[in-house]
Task: structure prediction
Amino acid sequence: MEKLIMIKYGELSTKKANINLFLKQLKDNLSFALEDLDVEIKFDKGRMFISLKKDNFEEVEEALNHVFGIHEYDIAYKFNDKNFDKIANFVLKLVKQKVFNTFKVVTKRSDKNYPISSMDFSRQIGAVILKNIEGVKVDIHEPELLVSIEIRMDAVYIYFNSEKGIGGYPVGVAGKGLLMLSGGIDSPVAGYMAIKRGVKLECIYFESPPHTSIEAKNKVLELASKLALYNNDIKVHIIRFTDIQQAIYQNCPHAYLVTIMRRMMYRIAERIARMNNCKILVNGESIGQVASQTLTSMNVINETVRIPVIRPVSCFDKLEIIDFAKKIGTYETSILPYEDCCTIFVPEHPVINPTFEEAREYEKNIDYEKMIYEAIKNHEVIRISLKEKVKEFEDIL
Result:
């Protein structure tokens, strides 16, 4: 008998011809997350198994709660003998260690050569439990104890009430994306949702010293570190936006400040994305939440890029986004009172229905291509790892 952790795939099992691509990525991500915990990982198209060389199940389970691609996981007992009486005695031994009044037995049989059907196997195991444990009864709807048995080709696996994984796709299976990460509530939630669909994220943050503080920068890095728990590690590109932002403020109508600022950010983000093989931009825009997020504004701002822009929270209201932020642990950091460059120089009455023609005309007042080149050339890169925080400064051009 071996005690191990069994992982169920859920949505991944629908991938058919390319399922091995998803499963290999999940195994690689698990190997990274568990590399310090002395485990061995094996998988087939039905299940993934984690064998532990020491009794550190709680540490492993904590790590699994940050790995996308897991539908469900169970602490299971692998029993190599398929003799019914021996299986029944072993199940009874395990069940006697539990405290319960009602139970249900569910059997899955992938070994179709096994002589007892799944339903008959469940009935017979249930009868053994009823005969040997006084005062318990079967409840097929809401049992206190669910006894699960899988008769597979190699062995029989026995486990009890399962733990839910966080679902989604293994990180990296969908390629890379660049998250426009601010210090607000919305963008970290959008980043989490993109990671859940298998997108390996890098981040871009626009700072505007001296108008923004080192505390604002550190706040963003803390948000990035929370996303790194799910992303394995994360790279943050920090763009000094001061010169561009001041040029916009001094040379463009104030009603258009936010629109033109966002157009510049998109231009920079697209170039950083392409330089780092990111296939999409991701941001936390929500339809109608602020002036730059009306459909007209988003259309005018989007004009500046040819890369797809993904907005995972676009149809959420603010309260839904706040609830999500609390769930993933970013809310308390996001509400720290440090301004980012999106909240400075905001006009009293920003335009909500900008036009392409006016935005293009006002941009002619500034030599933005030269400033964008300098901002990208001199930008700072910080890599945040699950294992350690590493600071790197890279010259991109």
